[in-house]
Fold this protein.
Amino acid sequence: MQPKILAATQSRVECELHEGYPLRLVGARGRRVQCVAGILWITACNQPADIFLKPGQTFVIPNGGLVLAEAVGHGRMQVDLPRAFHYAAYRMPARLARMVKATQAALLRLRYSA
């Protein structure tokens, strides 16, 4: 079975993995991979040995080369998303970014004044 996305937030994605169907990660330098269930088998470009993670263990991807992640049997993993997914205000024109920030502040004031 192909890797399947189970949940996604602004900061991370959780995937279900199965043996023999690796998830390919490219250009993921610095992202944190965490094993949630099962045993996770990671092969990273230019690394001398493969990495095996148990639930709760993490691995930070050391370079931007190809990384393959698959489960031994079946399992689940979480991968941190790049910061660009957290908040894309840097892409907005400055005036629009100020408007968004002012609207967020106004909503917070309304929320706490009630």
Observations:
- Residues 87-114 form one domain.
